[in-house]
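Quick one before lunch.
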Amino acid sequence: MENILPPANKDANLRDYRQARQSFDWKEVEQEFSWHHTGKVNMAYEAIDRHADDPTRGQRFCLIYEDENRTEKITYHQMRDLSNKFANVLRKLGVEKGDRVSIFLPRCPEYYIAMVGCAKVGAIFCPLFEALMEVAVGERLTDSEANVLVTTPEMARRVPFIDRPYLRHIILVGAKNMALKSSEVSWEEEMARAPYDFDIEWVDLEDPLYLIYAFGSTGNPKGALHVHRDMVGYLITAQWVLDLRDDDVLWTTADPGWITGTVYGAFAPWLCGVENLVRGGRFDLEGWCRSIQSHRVTVWYTAPTVFQRLMGKGEELMKGYDLHSLRHILSVGEPLASEVVYWGRRVFGTPIHDTWWMTETGMIMIANYPSMPIKPGAIGKPLPGIVAAVVDPQGEELPPLTLGELAIKKGWPAMMRGIWHDEELYREYFSREPWYISGDVAYMDDDGYFYFQGREDDLIKVAGVMVGPTEIEEALKGHPAVADAGIISKPDPLRGNMIKAFIALKPGFFPTKRLKEELIEYMKKHFSPRIVPKEIEFRSNIPRSEEGTVIRRVLKAWELGLPA
Ligand code: WTA
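Model of the WTA complex:
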């Protein structure tokens, strides 16, 4: 018997999924923006300035920033002024519409001020994840040809000199009273001097807003270009998926260096004018519970790894905090195990709602909505206005319960508009008209729910890090008993993803429990614990193509009991 959870909240913003799907029209969403009446477009205006003078919204906190040492609150009104100031700083440095400005900062209020300031001058901001090491930082700076970099003196050490050919200015946050080089300016000093007034640069809806680098396995950095029109998709997903209402306090735990943090940790809640919490520093169970309690967080958007840390040992600790303000909880990024969905219901009184999207899609595409029954294990159904399908290598739609590639009919507002400096790669995503091909493997059930099954390019995300299965297969083949091996990932009750190995044995070896244990021991001893399979199944042979690559789709079908 299939398990279905009843809707968590029938009074959600999106009341009737089926009806909304039938009558949906993007034009209606566009009417909610002021540019629809004025013709003047800029994300920064819609997200911040529009609320600034509103007696209620203007005084709300668009940013409640908190870490172990400090709490800082910035209202929409103050954010308008601060971002105006930063826009003036950029202008003074000669930044023009279309220029790239890299932001390489830890989570801090300046990060958010910088993003809005960039949008106001029409510059393209490039968020760089705080933990990137020298090589990655250099590649991204060179690829984006950024003229300006916002960073801290500490992190600037990870910005290699050799990769600065385009860089003209470095704006240093926290360099007060330090001796600066000619290319460097101090954030604090420049901001203190800059005027409060700024005339926003009005742009076209199709003008670029930001360039963000996707998580790839290896090879060149992949910069997805997003435009101001993205806001149409942010608003509707914030209303329907995050279910944001006027008096909500949202906490999206992702770093703004990843797209979830850029979109749902900043612009999407701002478009709704709600309060937005950002917590800096690392995961710290008690600190996190304290933040939820003291700021009365109502909507929480986080990731499977966070739930894993709360489950088990964390549960006892959580009892010391009042977390009753939470009314809606969502997850993204890695498979959300069914157990976690149920656990959420038991501990928070609301199941965890999974969502699926990518850096390239720019906004949530498939989700579980509060007013819709949840099938634990499913990523949900496509947003009204989005057409999703499972397709074969020719782009033909496959019937339900058949594995294939997850595809989205192209043309939604937040779709990436290019891969920076890589037109060919961009076209590959759209090579099977009319689809955007996600590279994720999935199937759909008879009720239209989608199930994520891994990556077509075989990458497996384990604890947030991509691993190539070939690497693991080759490692296993180093054991004397193994003739061939094939790896897949499958949802783990606790860890999000886990690795499963199918193994064909050499003649003379027998498939015993003992041999399984020995293989796991062997992997533990010789390789990183990240790539040790959790499960092993013996098969007489491993399906390979003529080119010799493992046909992973067959392995997944074996696993699910679907036709191979
Ligand atoms: C994976 C994150 C399982 C998927 C917004 C996708 C997921 C990649 C889910 C994009 C989910 C995203 N369940 N896997 N609900 N959501 N993924 O670009 O493989 O950092 O292609 O965007 O994460 O990762 P990205």
